[in-house]
Amino acid sequence: MMKMLVKFMILVHGVSVLLLLSGLTVSAVSLNISPNFQQFFREASVSLSCVEDGQTVDGWTVKRTKGEKTEECRVDGSDFGSFNGFSCFISFLSQSDSTGYWCETSSGQKTEQINITVPDGTGGDQVILEIPALPVIIGSDVTLRCKKKDNNRFRAVFFKNGVNIGTGSEGELPLISVQQSDEGVYHCYIDEDKPTPQSRLRVREPPSASVVRLILHLVVFCPFFISTGLMVSICCSRKTGNRAVVSMEMSQRVTGGHGLDKDC
Ligand SMILES: *[C@@H]1O[C@H](CO)[C@@H](O)[C@H](O)[C@H]1NC(C)=O
C-alpha cells in the first residue's frame, strides 16, 4: 500500500515537473524589430531581438535566409549584423539585407518571420512605405507613410492588394481603429516615381495569452506543489522511522480526498 502510494506520488511529481517545463517553454517568443518597419532606406540601421513579454530571451538566435542558406547573427564571426548579447544590430542596410528574419532555438523552434525590404534605386530616388513589421492590434490606430529619401513630404497614392485606396496629400495614410479587414499587402507611389516594394500588414486580436498562461500555470503548479510536499513529508517521516504515522496520514489524505482538493 505504502509502496504503491510512493510510486504514485513519484509519477504525479514526474508528470507535473514535465508539465511545468513544457508550460514554461510554451512561450510567446517573437522577433522584435526596432524601428518597427518592414521597408528601409539604404544605409539605415535596424535592431532585431528575440523577446518574450517585452524582455529579451536567452537561447534564441536571430537568423535569416540567404538564397538557399540560413545565416546567423552572432557575437563573433557573424554572418550578418552583430549580436551584443541582447539584440542583433544591422547598420548600413543594403539591398542584400532584403530577406526574411526570425528567431530560432538550437532545438529548431522558430518564431514567425519578419520580411525586411531595402528598395533598389539610389540616393533621393529611393521610395519606401513605412508600414509596421509587427502585427497591429485590432482597434489601434496606425499611419502608413510613403517616403522619399530626402524626407520631404509628397502627395502619395496608396494601394491595398493592388487596389487604389486613396491619396495622402502629405504622404500619409492613417488607418483609424484597425480591423481584421485592414490586413493585406500594401504599397504606394509618389508622383512619377516608381512604386515602393509591397509589404503585408498583419492584424492581431488583443493578447489574451496572459490569462491562458495564468490558468495553465495554476493547473500545473498545484499538483507540483502537492506532490512535492507529500514526497518531502514521506521522506522526512521515513528518516525518523515513524512509518505508522505517515501511512495513517497518507491514507487519511487519500481516502478523505479533502486534503488534496482544498489546496486547489
Ligand atoms: C515574407 O516573405 C515570404 C516570401 O516572400 C512570404 O511568403 C511571406 O508571406 C512574407 N511575410 C510577411 C509577413 O510579409
Automatic annotation (TrEMBL):
The keyword Cytoplasm does not apply. Keywords: Disulfide bond, Membrane, Signal, Transmembrane, Transmembrane helix. The chain crosses the membrane at residues 214-234. Residues 35-204 form the Ig-like domain. PROSITE patterns: IG_LIKE (PS50835). GO terms for molecular function: transmembrane signaling receptor activity. GO terms for biological process: cell surface receptor signaling pathway; immune response. It comes from the Eukaryota. InterPro entries: Ig-like_dom, Ig-like_dom_sf, Ig-like_fold, Ig_Fc_receptor, Ig_sub. This is Ig-like domain-containing protein. It comes from Channa argus (Northern snakehead). The lineage of its organism: Eukaryota, Metazoa, Chordata, Craniata, Vertebrata.
